[in-house]
C-alpha cells in the first residue's frame, strides 16, 4: 500500500470555504418525515468548541446508501445521504435529515486544535448492537440528540479502521 | 513544566492551557518541545496529543481509538458531480472583478487511493490566505491587507485519471498566537474525499524551501520526516507558463479503500 498523505488540522479559517447554503439540510428543515439530529461539541474542560465541523454520511429511510451527486447545490432533488455542519458560537451542530434504514449515522469530526479528523457513529435510539455510548437520545419533541466530547470524563468513542 | 501541565489536565482542571503564556513562550522553547517529542518513535500521522500546538491540549482524545470494520454508510463516500461544482471555481484569480495581487501559481496533481488507483470525479476543496497572509474570513485579525479580488476559496472535481488543478495566488505566511512570534509557513488547505467514507482527509499543502516549516508545530506534529515531506509540493517547471505563472505539483494519497479489501459478503 502506498504511504498515505498525512492529515492536518482544519484550522480556524474554514467556514467561508466549507460551509454553504443547505449544507446541513439533507432534507429541508421541517419537511414531512424529516428528523433533526443535533448536539454540542465539547472540549476536555467541558467548554463548547465553536470552531468544529461535523459531517455525516447515512443510508436513506429504506436502508440504501445513495451514490448520487447534488449535496453542494441542493435543490430539493434526490437525497444524497451526506451533509456537513460547522458548529456555532455555542458549539452546536444540527442536521435536518431522515432516520436511516441502517442503524447509525457515520460521523467525521474536524476542529481547530484537532490535528486529524476523528471518526465516530451515532446510533439510532432503538438500534440493536450499538457501540456503547454512541446512541442518540430521542428528545420529547422528536429530535435526536448526540453530544460529542473530544476529551474528558464523557469522551466520545472514536474509531480507526483497518486501512486507516 | 510541561509534564505538570499535562497532569493537571488529566486531573480535569479547567483551563489548564492558560498556564501556557503565548506572549512569553519563545520559538526556542517550542522548538525544544518539538525536538523532545521527535526523539521518540516517528509517526506518519499527526500526533493528536501534541502540546507544542497549544490548542490540542483540551481537544485530543485520551482514549485509544477503537478499531472497527467499516460497514453500511462507512463503505461509500459521498458522490459529487458537475451539478455541484462549476469549472470556474478552480480558478481563484477570476472570482471577482479584477486580478488579485500576488505571485500567480498553478497547483496540480493526482488524488490516488492507498492502492495507487486514481480517485475519479471526486470533490477537492481548497482555502488559503491571500498574498499578504490574510484570510477572507471574519475571524482573521492579522493586520495585513485584504484583497478585494481574492476570496482564497476554490473547488474542483478530479478528472477520469484523478488529476486536479487550481489556478491561484501564492499565499503568504501569517502570524498566529500559539507562542511569541509564531508564524505559519505558507500553505493551502485541502479537503479530499475518496471512494470510502473512511478515506476522508483534510490537510495542508506546503511550498518547497520554506524556512518556517521546521518551526511550525502543526507541520511538526507529523514526527516522521518522510511523512512530513509528503505535504510539500514540488516546483514543476513543466507547468509554469511563459510570462504568466509558476507551476507546483502535489500528489495526494488517501488511505486504502475497504470496498475491494474486505471479503465479499454474500448478502
Ligand atoms: Fe491556514
TrEMBL record, chain A:
Assigned keywords, A-Z: Dioxygenase, Oxidoreductase
A Pfam family that the UniProt record links to this protein: Dioxygenase_C
Domain of life of the organism encoding this protein: Bacteria
Keyword hit for Hydrolase: no
Entries under Gene3D superfamilies matching the protein: Aromatic compound dioxygenase (2.60.130.10)
InterPro entries found in the cross-reference section: Intradiol_dOase_C (IPR000627), Intradiol_dOase_core (IPR015889), Intradiol_RC_Dioxygenase (IPR050770), Protocat_dOase_a (IPR012786)
Domain Intradiol ring-cleavage dioxygenases: 34-101
GO MF annotations, alphabetized: ferric iron binding; protocatechuate 3,4-dioxygenase activity
Family that this chain belongs to: Belongs to the intradiol ring-cleavage dioxygenase family.
The protein's name: Protocatechuate 3,4-dioxygenase alpha subunit
Native species: Lentzea atacamensis
TrEMBL record, chain B:
Keywords, sorted A to Z: Dioxygenase, Oxidoreductase
Residues covered by the Intradiol ring-cleavage dioxygenases domain: 107-135
InterPro entries to which the protein is assigned, alphabetical: Intradiol_dOase_C (IPR000627), Intradiol_dOase_core (IPR015889), Intradiol_RC_Dioxygenase (IPR050770), PCDO_beta_N (IPR024756), Protocat_dOase_b (IPR012785)
Superkingdom to which the source organism belongs: Bacteria
Pfam families the UniProt entry points to: Dioxygenase_C, PCDO_beta_N
PROSITE patterns named among the record's database cross-references: INTRADIOL_DIOXYGENAS
Keyword Oxidoreductase: yes
Family membership: Belongs to the intradiol ring-cleavage dioxygenase family.
Protein name: Protocatechuate 3,4-dioxygenase beta subunit
Native organism taxonomy: Bacteria, Bacillati, Actinomycetota, Actinomycetes, Pseudonocardiales
Amino acid at each position: 500500500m502506498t504511504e498515505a498523505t498525512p492529515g492536518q488540522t482544519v484550522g480556524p479559517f474554514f467556514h467561508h470555504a466549507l460551509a454553504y447554503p443547505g449544507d446541513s439540510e439533507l432534507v429541508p428543515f421541517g419537511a414531512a418525515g424529516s428528523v433533526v439530529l443535533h448536539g454540542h461539541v465539547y472540549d476536555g474542560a467541558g467548554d463548547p468548541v465553536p470552531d468544529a465541523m461535523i459531517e455525516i454520511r447515512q443510508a436513506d429511510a429504506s436502508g440504501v446508501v445513495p451514490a448520487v451527486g447534488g449535496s453542494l447545490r441542493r435543490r430539493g432533488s434526490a437525497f444524497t445521504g451526506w451533509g456537513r455542519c460547522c458548529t456555532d458560537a455555542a458549539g452546536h451542530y444540527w442536521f435536518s435529515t431522515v432516520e436511516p434504514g441502517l442503524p447509525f449515522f457515520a460521523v467525521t469530526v474536524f476542529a481547530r486544535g484537532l490535528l486529524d479528523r476523528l471518526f465516530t457513529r451515532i446510533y439510532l435510539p432503538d438500534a440493536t448492537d450499538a457501540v456503547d455510548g454512541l446512541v442518540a437520545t430521542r428528545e420529547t419533541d422528536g429530535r435526536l440528540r448526540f453530544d460529542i466530547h473530544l476529551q474528558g470524563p464523557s469522551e466520545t468513542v472514536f474509531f480507526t479502521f483497518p486501512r486507516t | 513544566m510541561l509534564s505538570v501541565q499535562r497532569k493537571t489536565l488529566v486531573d480535569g482542571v479547567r483551563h489548564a492551557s492558560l498556564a501556557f503564556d503565548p506572549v512569553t513562550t519563545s520559538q526556542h522553547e517550542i522548538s525544544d518541545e518539538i525536538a523532545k517529542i521527535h526523539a521518540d518513535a516517528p509517526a506518519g500521522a499527526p500526533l493528536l496529543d501534541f502540546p507544542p500546538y497549544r490548542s490540542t491540549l483540551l481537544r485530543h482524545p485520551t482514549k485509544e481509538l477503537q478499531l472497527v470494520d467499516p460497514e453500511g454508510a462507512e463503505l461509500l463516500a459521498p458522490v459529487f458531480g458537475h451539478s455541484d461544482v462549476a469549472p470556474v471555481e478552480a480558478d481563484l484569480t477570476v472570482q471577482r472583478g479584477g486580478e488579485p495581487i500576488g505571485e500567480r501559481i498553478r497547483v496540480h496533481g493526482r488524488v490516488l487511493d492507498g492502492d495507487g488507483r486514481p480517485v475519479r470525479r471526486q470533490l477537492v476543496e481548497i482555502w488559503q490566505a491571500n498574498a499578504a497572509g490574510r484570510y477572507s474570513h471574519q475571524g482573521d485579525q492579522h493586520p495585513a491587507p485584504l484583497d478585494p479580488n481574492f476570496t482564497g476559496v476554490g473547488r474542483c472535481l478530479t478528472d477520469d485519471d484523478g488529476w486536479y488543478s487550481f489556478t491561484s495566488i501564492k499565499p503568504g505566511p501569517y502570524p498566529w498566537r500559539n507562542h511569541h512570534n509564531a508564524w505559519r509557513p505558507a500553505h493551502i488547505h485541502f479537503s479530499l474525499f475518496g471512494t470510502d467514507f473512511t478515506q476522508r482527509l483534510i490537510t495542508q499543502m506546503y511550498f518547497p524551501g520554506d524556512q518556517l516549516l521546521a518551526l511550525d508545530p502543526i507541520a511538526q506534529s507529523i514526527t516522521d520526516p518522510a511523512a512530513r515531506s509528503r505535504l510539500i509540493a514540488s516546483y514543476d517547471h513543466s507547468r509554469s507558463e511563459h510570462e504568466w505563472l509558476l507551476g507546483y505539483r502535489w500528489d495526494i494519497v488517501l488511505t486504502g479503500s475497504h470496498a475491494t479489501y474486505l471479503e465479499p459478503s454474500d448478502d
